[in-house]
Amino acid sequence: MLLIQCPYCDDALPELEFAYAGEAHIDRPQDPSALSDEEWRDFLFIRSNVKGVHAERWRHINGCGRFFNALRDTVSDRFVTSYKAGEPRPDTSGKEPAQ
Amino acid sequence: MTDFRVEGRGRVNRAKPVSFTFDGETYRGFEGDTVASALLANGVHLMGRSFKYHRPRGVVTAGSDEPNALVGTTRGKGRFEPNTRATIQEIYPGLTTESQNKWPSLKFDLGAINDRLYMLFSAGFYYKTFMWPRSFWDSVYEPLIRKAAGLGKAPTEVDPDHYASRYLHCDVLVIGSGPSGIAAALTAGRAGSKVVLVDETAEMGGTLLSEPSVSIDGRPAWDWLAGAMAELDAMPNVRRMTRTTATGYYHQNMIGMVQKLTDHMGDVPEGAPRERMWRVRAKEVVLAQGAIERPMVFDGNDCPGVMLAGAAQTFLNRFGVLVGKQPVVLTSHDSAWYSAFDMADAGAKVVAIVDTRESVPQALQNDARARGIPIHLGHTATATKGRLRVAALRINPVHNGKVGAEKMLSCDAVLVCGGWTPSLHLFSHTKGSLDWDAEAKAYLPGHKTEDVHIAGAGRGLWGIAAALEDGTKAGADAVRSLGGSAGAATFEVADDRTGSGITQKELPTDRSPGKAKAFVDFQNDVTAKDIRLAVREGMKSIEHVKRYTTNGMATDQGKLSNMNGLTIAADALGKEAPQVGLTTFRPPYTPTTFGAFAGYHKGAHFEVTRKTPIDDWAEENGAEYEPVALWRRAWYFPQAGEDMHKAVARECKATRESVGIFDASTLGKIEVSGPDATEFMNRMYTNPWTKLGVGRARYGLLLGEDGFIRDDGVIGRMRDDLFHVTTTTGGAARVLNMMEDYLQTEWPDLRVWLTSTTEEWATIALNGPNARKLLQPFVEGADISADAMPHMSVVECTVAGFPSRLFRISFTGELGFEINVPARHGRVLWEKLWDAGQQYDICPYGTETMHVLRAEKGFIIVGQDTDGTVTPEDAGIGWAIGKKKIDFVGKRSLDRPDIVAKGRKQLVGLLTDDPKTVLTEGAQIVADPNQPKPMKMIGHVTSSYWSEVLGRSIAMALVEGGFDRMDDRLHIPTETGGTVTAKVTGTQFYDPAGERLKVE
Ligand SMILES: [Zn+2]
Asked: Domain SoxA A3 spans what residues (chain B) (predicted)?
C-alpha cells in the first residue's frame, strides 16, 4: 500500500484514505461551445497515458476531502511529489522518485 | 514399527509424548515435532500421491518449501484444511491428518493408472487434448478435469474460526531468524532501533538448529543461540515473532505477515483467533531468508525415501530423527557431505557418497574415509528401485561425457543436493532486479527499489561465519540509514562448514532420456522431458515454458523447481540461463488462508449495512428487504399468505385509492449554500435555476461532461443562497464528489459550500388522494392547501411539532408529500402518521411498489433505465435542459456528432400483446424473430412490472431509433425458447394528463 503525501494535511498517509481522480492539468475550457468537435473529443477522452512520470489528480477523500495533484512514476508506481490544486507542475527533471 | 528416533539428538521434548493420527492410524511423537518428523520417526516416508500421475510420494524437505507431503488436517467440527504441509504442521494431542489424491488407499491408488499413461500426459497436454471437438467440453472434458483437478479436498463447511488483523510500525524488520537474521536483529537492537524479528517456524535459529556442531564465540551453537534469544528478549525495543510468515512485500516497505496462533494447540483458548494478519510498515527491512536446497533431476527421483540432504540433517539434528538407516548421498555440493557425516555419527550406515563432480576437497574425502563411507566421484544416478519406498539407487560413472556401467546401491534413503538457490521471493515482490552470478550459478539481488538489505545465504554467502558477519553488517547498515550509528559486531566461529558446489541440468543417463521420469516440479508432476518438449514445440521464453508445462505453477511457486527448470530449458535452447530469463515470484510467499486476508471482514462485518431511522418499524411489521447501495431498504410488506406479487399489487392499489406511506430516507441529500449557489447549480445541472423562486422545487438532471445522464432528483430552493438537493440513493456520494471536484478544481472562485445531509434527515413520503387530509392536521406554520402549496413546492414548517422541510412532490403520479424531519424524530413521526392514517386505511409500501408506481408514470430510475450511455434526449427528458443556458456540465457533448446521429437507443414503452405476460428485465429485443442466429439485437427491456391499476403488464425499453417505431411490433426472445411480441408506445402508461395531482 502506497503512502501518499497530502499537500493540505502535510502528511504522508495510507493509500486507503485517497481516491484517484484521473490525469491532472486538463482544464475545462472556458467556453466549450467555441471548441470544434475534435477539440472537445480530445478534452473528453484523449489522455497522455505516459510510461514514466505522470501528473495526476488525487482526492484525500477519507481525510480532508481536498483534491490535489501528484507526480507519480507509472513504471515504478512511486510518487515523485504532490502539490496543491492550481499550482503549476513542478520541474522534477533529474530528481529521483521519492521513497 | 521401527523407531527411527536417535537418543540424545534433536530439540523435541522427550518428556511430552504426543499422539496423533495419520490415515486413521495412531502415531506417537513428541512436543516440538512436525507431522513429517513424527511420521519419519515411525519409519513412514509415504505421505501422499502426486497430483497428475498419482505417484507415491514422500517428504522431500523439512520446511515450507515442501511440495509432496501435503495432508488434510482436522481440528474439530468444521475445521478441515487441505494441503497443509506436513513439514510445517506441529503435532498436538488429538490432531487428525490424512493423505491426499488417493483412492481407495494411499498404498493402493487407482488413479495411478495415469502414471502408466505417462506418455499421454506430456507437456501441453491440456492445450492439445481438450481443444476439440467442442461438444466434448460439457460432457467429457470438464467433468474429467473437475474430478482430477485440485490438490486435496475443499472444505465443505463455513469456517467457524475467526481471524485477527493488526498494524505494526518499526524501524527495522528482520525476516528470517537464522544466523544472519539474528546478527542483524542483535546489532540493530543494541543500537536502540525498534526491531521486529520474525520467523515462519515455531522456533528461531534457522540453520543453527540443524548444525549444532558449530561453535560461536567459544560456545556450542545452541548455547550461543539461547544467549542471543535471551539478549533480544531483554531488549524492550525488540519484538520476536515465531510462526509468522512474511507473505508479501509491498510498496514503501509494507510487509504482510501472517501469524499462526492456534493451529499448533490441542486446547484452543475460547475465542482465540486462529491467525493474525500483520500489516507492517518498516523503515528498513533486512531479508535474511537463507537459501533453498535444490533436488537432483534423474529417473525415479520422486520415489519416497529420496529427499534433500539438508532436510535429512534438519530431521536428525532438530527433531532427533534418522530418515534412514542405510542412506546413499547423491550430491553436487559440499554441504551434503556434512549431512552424510552427521548421519554416520548418529549411527546410520551411509552406503556411499555419490558426487557428480570429479574433484571434491580432499578434507571432505578424508572425513568420509575416516567414517568408512565409500566415495563415488564423477558419477551420475540413472534410476531408483522401489515403489512405495526407495530400495536401491542405480549409479554409473561418467567419463568425458560417456556414461559407464551401472552399479546398484541398496539403500533405504537417497539424500540429494543439487546446490542451493538464494531465497529471494520477497525481494522479487519489490521488483528488485535479480542479476545472474555466473560464478555462483545463481540469481543474486541486484538493483533495489526499497529500503532493504539482504544478508547471508540470500545473497549467495555460505557458512555460519559469513552469515553472522553479513547479518551484523546489514543490521548496522539499516541503523545508519535511519541516521543512527552502529558498529558491526564480530563473531568467533569454529568448526564452520563452508563449501561450494555446481548447478546442473538433469543427470546424464545410459538409458533413453525420453522414458525417464526425472521430475523437476514434484507438485505439478513436470519432468525434464516435458520441459525439453516444450522447447522443441517452440516455447522460447521461460514464461512460456512455465505456462506450457506448468513448471513452478503449483502452490509452492517452484521453490524447488524453478532453477532446475530454467537450467534444463536453457540447455535445450542452447543458451545461458540469464538469456532465457526468470519467472516472477508473486505474493503470497507460501499458501495463505482466505481467513487471514478477510480478517474481521466477514458476515455482517463484510460490508456496512446502512439502516434508516424507520428501519426498525419495517422489521417489526414484517418487511422483506432488498439491498440498495449499502442500504437495506424495505422491499414490500407481505401480509399473511401473500407472495411478493400479491403484496405489491395490494400496496399499489391502496396507494392509488387512498394513501400509502413510504420511507424515502435513503435518498441522497446535499445542501448547496453560499452567495454563488445559484450560479453553481446553473453550471452543474442541465436545468435553469436563476428564476426558481424560494419555496419552489424542480426536477434536476445531472450529466457527465460526456453528455450522459449521471443522476437526477428533486431540488428545492430554501433560500436565495440555499438549495436542498436530492440525489438517487446509490448516487449520493458520487454526486457530492463530482460537485466537490468542479468546485475545488474548476471554479474555486465560487463562494459555495457543499454539505452531505443524507443521514441528517428522515424522509417520509405520503402518496395518494388522501395524503393531504392525513397530513394537514399535523402541519403548523404553513398552509398546504392546493392553492397555497402547488405541486413542486417546498416549505419550512413543523410537522407534529418537529421542524420540517416539507415538499409537495410526487414520484407516483398521485398527490404526494415528502416530509423531512431531523433523523431522530423519524420513527415517532412515522408512527403518528401511521396511527392517524388508520382512518384512511393507510398502507406502508416498499421499494418494489415505488418502482411500479413510478413506471406507470414513465419516471426513469437512473442506473436502471439508463446505463451511462443515455442522453436526456434518449431518455425522453430533453425538456429538463435549460435551452437558453450557455453552458452546463455536459452541454457541449449534446452536440457531438454521435449524440445527434440517427439510430441511438431511445427509451420507449412496451405493451405485450398478451397483457398477462410480464417481460424479463434485461431481455434482448429483436425486430424480426425469424432472422438467422445470431440475431441483431436492437435494444433491451429496462423496467417491467405487472400494473394492478391498468390490469396488465407494462415495460420500458431502450430501443434503437425507438421514437420512430411507435406502434411497431417488436419481439423479445425468452429464456425458454419462445418469443413475446410487444407494441412500442410512449412511457406514460397511466394518467398521462396528470389529472390525479389535482386533488383538492
Ligand atoms: Zn488531506
From this structure: 516-599
- How much distance in Å is there from the Cα of A13 to the middle of ligand 1? 9
Nearest CB among B250, B279, B887 relative to A33 is that of B887
DSSP 8-state secondary structure symbol assigned to residue B104:
B
Whether B395 and B352 share a structural domain: yes
The domain containing residue B559 runs over which residues? Answer: 514-584
**Cα B432 to ligand 1 centroid, rounded to whole Å:** 31
CA distance B323 to B414: 10
For B807, the grid coordinates are 415538499
Concatenated DSSP letters of B698-737: EEEEEE-TTS-EEEEEEEEEEETTEEEEEE-TTTHHHHHH
Nearest-CA distance A71 → chain B (Å): 16
Chain B residues whose CB is inside 8 A of the A47 CB are none
Residue of A nearest to B895 (CA): A37
> Which residues of chain B does A61 touch, with a Cβ-Cβ cutoff of 8 Å?
737
Residues B903 and B963 in one domain: yes
Question: Domain spanning A1-27+51-99 has what CATH number?
Answer: 3.30.2270.10
Statement to judge: residues B774 and B644 lie in one domain? yes
Kindly indicate whether the ipTM for this predicted assembly is greater than 0.85, answering yes or no. Answer: yes
pLDDT along chain B (1000 residues), means of 10: 86 97 96 98 93 90 96 89 95 94 73 66 61 60 59 85 96 98 98 98 97 97 98 98 98 97 93 97 98 97 98 98 98 98 98 97 98 98 96 97 96 97 95 88 91 96 96 98 93 94 93 92 94 94 91 90 94 91 89 95 91 98 96 97 97 98 98 98 98 98 98 98 97 97 97 98 98 98 96 98 98 97 98 98 98 98 97 97 96 96 97 97 96 94 98 98 98 92 98 91
Is this structure's pTM higher than 0.95? Answer: no
B45, B58 Cβ separation under 8 angstroms: yes
Q: How many domains does chain B have?
A: 7
- What is the least distance, in Å, from the CA of A63 to any CA of chain B? 13
B744: chain A residues, CB-CB within 8 Å: 66-67, 85
Q: List helix spans (H) across B449-527.
A: 464-481
In a domain, B217, yes or no: yes
User: Which residues, 6+ apart, have CB-to-CB distance to B993 below 8 Å?
Assistant: none
Q: Residue B2 domain-assigned?
A: no
